[in-house]
Amino acid sequence: MVSPVSLLPRDGDVTPAQVEAWLASLRGHRGAADVERLRGAVAEAAARHTGETMPDGTGKLLGLLQTADILNGLKLDTETLVAAVLSEIPRGPGFDRQAIASRYGERVADMLALGSRIRDLSASGARGGGDEGSGVEALRRLLLGLADDVRVLLVVLAKRLRLMRGLHRLEREAQLTVARETRLVHAPLANRLGIWQMKWELEDLSLRYLEPETYKELARQLDGKRREREDFIADVIGRLQAECRMHDINAEISGRPKHIYSIWKKMQRKRVGFDQVFDVRAVRVLVDTVAQCYEVLGIVHGLWRPVPGEFDDYIARPKGNGYSSLHTAVVGDDGRPLEVQVRTREMHEHAERGVAAHWRYKESRGADADLERRVHWMRRWLENSDDVPDEGDESEFEARRIYVLTPQGRVIELPKGATAVDFAYAIHTSVGHRCRGAKADGRIITLTQPLESGQTVEILTAKEGGPSRDWLNPHSGYLATARARN
User: Fold this and answer.
1) Would you state the pLDDT for residue 246?
2) d(Cα 406, Cα 461) in Å, to the nearest integer?
3) Could you give phi then psi for residue 127, rounded to 5 degrees?
4) What angle (nearest 5°) sits at the alpha carbon of residue 154, between those of residues 170 and 398?
5) Do the bridges between strand 337-344 and strand 282-287 make them parallel or antiparallel, or are there none, so unpaired?
6) What does the pLDDT read at residue 388?
7) How far, in whole angstroms, is CA 86 from its chain's centroid?
8) pLDDT digits (tens, 9 = 90+) for 315-324
9) What is the distance between the alpha carbons of residues 183 and 188, in angstroms, rounded to a whole number?
10) Radius of gyration of the chain (CA)
11) With contact defined as beta carbons under 8 Å apart, do 413 and 403 qualify?
């Protein structure tokens, strides 16, 4: 989980001294030029947003710095932090993209414009997509399809996490709206990109507002047995650490964080009670080599009795997304289950930062080679975030599908090159038959103009009539989908 900011206040506003202290804290792992570039962005944001507040009442500058601080905790590059600090500028008056590009670079300007667009689409799409299903799934694909620079999504996710942390300050109706959008769109996106720290916190906070009684009950059960559980885990860590030292293994052992949302989901999926969830009590062991992983596994199984059927070797057989670790469950001295994860430090770093995302395992709804190809490209960028993919990489992983919205916010998935006529038939056959014109983002377009991801398309229809024979002419450019031709 991403730790709350420490040098910045949690709410209210931020003083110049606090801003300076935060900037000074970055000097330990960023160059002087990077810190000065960020200082310039902070000064511009402060000048533009004087007296303005975020939806939760936090001063806008403080909210922007909190967002940048979350991204700093994920070790993102300075360009991403600059984009986070300036991310509210496109939503205010007088946004001059060229001026921003001249001061901070083309990539920052592109990130600002696209980030604002993605935030609008995620809100309208969540309202129009219903509950978990094809509509929301298409919305997630739309956002992934738009974000050729993965850092845009990371800024959007960091802004949402900051908002969720202050959601208690909003009215109940607003809490439900924001929490629902977060559960349907933002947490799954964090999951697909493998940003586990964000995913877990977004899920827990969403559950807190969407299922408050369930959340309180699970929190009560965790807190009610916290001392007992902490004593048990401390004993496990002590015994395991002593055994590792005897075998000359440099092991880092800790209690694994408990996430209320994951416990709730597991109770629902397995139809079991709180005490029957294996990872309510869990430890994680980090070692230097793969061989030591298996050596520690043998030590664990020698100290406690393994639970049949609860061992998974994701090192010998990594998950399809590259996730590697050993998972086992054993019976503790008190007769209750304990989960143990063993992995190398390198495996842990990849898992925590998002390279080994496990979205296919958690959310599989059928294979989609193109989506996996694009997410793989995004993860590859995350694996070495100091290097921005070159143009060759971007063209290689260019989206082959587009995602456009109806005026009601429903997302329609189409092949690249699809037209308004294809879109009309994707909505309904009768809409396609009566299509006579179209608008994209409020502007009239020709029926042969290829649509682009993120556009909101409105079909202009006749009261009656049928399709034009010209549409079937392969050289006319009206149709790109087999459904529309049929």
Assistant:
1) 96
2) 14
3) -70, -35
4) 135
5) parallel
6) 44
7) 20
8) 998 875 567 8
9) 7
10) 25
11) yes
DSSP 182: I
Nearest of 289, 228, 280, 238 to residue 258 by alpha carbon: 280
CB atoms near residue 62 (< 10 Å) = 24
**Where do we find the tokens 């083309």?**
106
Which helix (DSSP H) or strand (DSSP E) does residue 350 occupy?
helix 345-353
Taking the C-alpha atoms of residue 462 and residue 189, their distance in angstroms, rounded to an integer, is 39
Count of H-run helices and E-run strands, the chain: 22, 11
Left if phi > 0, otherwise alpha if psi is -120 to 50, otherwise beta: which for 55?
A: alpha
Q: What is the pLDDT of residue 41?
A: 96
**Model confidence over 58-80: pLDDT tens digits?**
999 999 999 999 998 888 889 99
Per DSSP, the three-state class of 196 is helix
The residue type found at 248 is D
- HSE-CB at 417 with a 13 A cutoff on CA atoms is 7
Q: Which amino acid is at 419?
A: T
The DSSP element (H or E) to which 178 belongs, if any, is helix 172-181
Give the pLDDT confidence score for residue 63 in this predicted structure: 96
Beta strands in 192-323 (DSSP E): 252-255, 282-287, 305-306, 312-313
> Which residues of the chain carry a pLDDT beneath 70?
1-6, 122-140, 142, 144-148, 224, 257, 278-279, 320-322, 352-400, 475
